[in-house]
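Notebook entry, structure prediction.
Reason for the run: the old model in the group folder had no record of what sequence produced it. Starting over properly, with the input documented here first.
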Amino acid sequence: YEDVLTVYRDAGTFSSQRYSVGLPSNQEAEAMLSPEMRGCGQMLISIDPPRHNAMRRRFNGALLPRAVVQLESSSRQIVSEIIDAVAPKGECDFVVEVAARLPMAIICEMMAIPRADWDQMFRWANMAMASEDPEYQIEGGAVATKNIGYGGIFNYCLGLALKRRGNPGDDLLS
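New structure, fully documented this time:
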């Protein structure tokens, strides 16, 4: 516990912004991915204090129990839709079709991403997080897959956020 606390409190030595939050899977990936390409300093998870703390405060309200309770109805609907999609098959790949899809769908809902785009967000997330899995890998290998995944999510969300600047909603992206 004390070791973890030491790392947590020392962003100068253990910087997420400089080094990212994940380690490259091999030297080739390390050589090909600059910190910027890994999202360093661009996403909440890869920003160091004090900027991280200021950004985190903006999201805290949406994640407090009183705000999350507002998601109950839409979350139940999403769960029902996911179950309804797999139940007629009699079997499914639970991780891919339920366990991974559910949190991504809830996040999309919280960001008010149009439902027509959820499948694409799911594909990009799988490419970003499982770039070495042959199921998601594209031509060019793991590095290209990861770049397309993270780049797709980043560019999509940036475009949507810019559109909402003139007319923000109560979603996480606005």
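Summary: The chain is about 60% helix and 0% strand.
The old model has been moved to the deprecated folder.
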